[in-house]
Amino acid sequence: QTCALPISIALPANVSARLWGATAGVAVITALVAGRQLIAFQDNVMLIRRLDVALTDLTHQEMLLREQASTDGLTKLANRSRFGDELTQALAGRTDVAVLLIDLDDFKTINDTMGHAAGDALLVEVAGRLRAAVRAEDVVARLGGDEFTILLRHADSRAAGRAAEEIQRRLAEPMVLEGQTVTTRASIGVACARPD
């Protein structure tokens, strides 16, 4: 994009040709410098836009990496590392905390007889049922394989027992995997901590 600037110079009539030449030279140089500054400004605006896009992409990538570092890839639950961090924070607080350790009883049989795809589908279904059995403030995590754990904040042993019963009830409901109806069971351990 070019821009034409009208320039008018008013000098007295009895001025020498050299002064006219020098004045015209100054005017041309000023116009060239101003034009170059406008071009540089436009280039800088485009560069800033590109940097904004790159920064947005980097921020998105950082968030994605943080999520991947703290989330189980299959079930999208918290992973062992994030659960440890959440538990440490909860234990540092001044409230009752309970932890449920859940081990699926029938996972190996289903995984071996129906295949790994069915085993993965079972783990995803169990993860959803565990999430649905507890409050939004609680942390459900997959430790690995067929082991899960739940951090119940502000929960005493009675609340933990009720949560374990609700989990057992939800897991006992039949589910369809690979066209077959299956049920699963779990062994659940409960540990409670109270503030000093």
What can you tell me about this protein's structure?
With 196 residues, the chain is α+β, with helices and mostly antiparallel strands. It contains five helices and six strands. It has a four-stranded antiparallel beta sheet with strand order 2-3-1-6, sandwiched between helices. Strands 4-5 form a two-stranded antiparallel sheet. The longest helix has 54 residues, at 17-70. 19% of the residues are buried. The model has no long low-confidence stretch (mean pLDDT 88).
How many individual β-strands?
A: 6
The mean pLDDT is 88
Determine the strand fraction and express it as a percent band: 15-25%
Rg, alpha carbons: 34 Å
Shape: elongated
Q: What low-confidence regions span 5 or more consecutive residues with pLDDT below 50? A: none
How far is the first residue's CA from the last residue's CA? Answer: 73 Å
- SSE order, as H and E? HHEHHEEHEEE
Structural class, judged by helices and strands?
alpha+beta
Tally the helices.
5
Q: How are the strands ordered across the major sheet?
A: 2-3-1-6
